[in-house]
Amino acid sequence: MAEQPATFAPPSPGISPVNLSDCIEDLLHFTLSTYLQVPPLLDLGFSKDYCSRLLQLDEADPISSANRDCGGVPAYPLYKPLARAVERSIKSGSLGRERRSIDLIPVDESVKAREKEWNELIADKGSEILNMLEGVDFELHVQEPYFSQLRDGRKTVEGRCGGNYSRITPGAVLLFNKCLLFQVQHVNRYSSFYEMLKVEGLSDILPGVETVEEGVQIYRKFYTEEKETASGVFAIYVSRLASQPYISLGNLLSGLGYDGVGGLLGMMHTAGTDSNALPPPRSAIIASSKKPHHPNVKGCILTNGARALAKHVNKSSEGWWGYFSGSDSNKNRIASEVINHLVDDCCWMNIHFIKPHECVFEVRVHEGYGARWSADGTEFIGFLEPYMEGGYSKGWRH
């Protein structure tokens, strides 16, 4: 079935070449979703919760992650920035992570040693995906529930109104919904959808539809009767190919494991890192810093972020934290600007265990300044000075 509702005909089939950048998000979403379905189509080796988190939306953050592909804490849904990182890695043939170390914070050498293995995996599986996409002749989009029926093998015939679909011939490779490959077995032409459904039957074209009349009405949502009469109708028989890009992508992800996927999302790995953790939603970490520091004190509007900034503003001799003065409202504004800078421009992120806070989410910018939250981002812990020799004994003044 076509992807556009109402009385508009679907667009002509897309033709090759298929660009990785145009389909990587849909392909990754499908790969993760197939692992979560019952039974799963493939085993990624991750926990179900981990994959669900990658697909999770952040309804409190209205800005799409597509607009935040240039660093900082990745926006939800995490699969989108992950998809772009996978794309860059495939095109470069390596993990593609710009590793930015922070002075005096040692990186886990065991993870660093695995990058050669990861690079070989990316080059291998990435080449498989690119070769499959290069072999595509046409792209088609199918709405639900018909796409799921194609995926599960219950639907084997795709009905389309003529026009440019006449270019689709036996042997052609079709990419459905940017993620599933099928090959055309043969094509039958009819004068109308009614004739097609009467001759071909309903079970392979529109599984679950009980009458030909009902089937015609489904197609009428996408094609006018005039279009049908003028162009004719095609019944395109397809079979699913054994080699699929989502399988290669799944093998790539499972080979990278938690550490590699975390690296693609910009996470660092040090002693005490929780490899299974993912960065919390941006909305949560920003909101927790804006909570009132004394919620039960009437008239007190100073936020957690502003209270924490008051402790740090005089520690930097270079005045990195800025000029902190004025009313509580002004201090809240300044603290909010600092938080936004750290969240948007951090080059170092980690979720690790540290006393007395147990597991924390930590970010730092390239100068070494940063902040910490609880692992889920709901509790703002405070700001951080750059690491330095004897920092604790010096009160982190520098």
Automatic annotation (TrEMBL):
InterPro entries reported in the protein's UniProt record: ASCH_domain (IPR007374), PUA-like_sf (IPR015947)
CDD domains: ASCH_PF0470_like
Pfam families: ASCH
Domain ASCH: from-to ranges: 140-242
Signal peptide per UniProt: none
Name of the protein described by the UniProt record: ASCH domain-containing protein
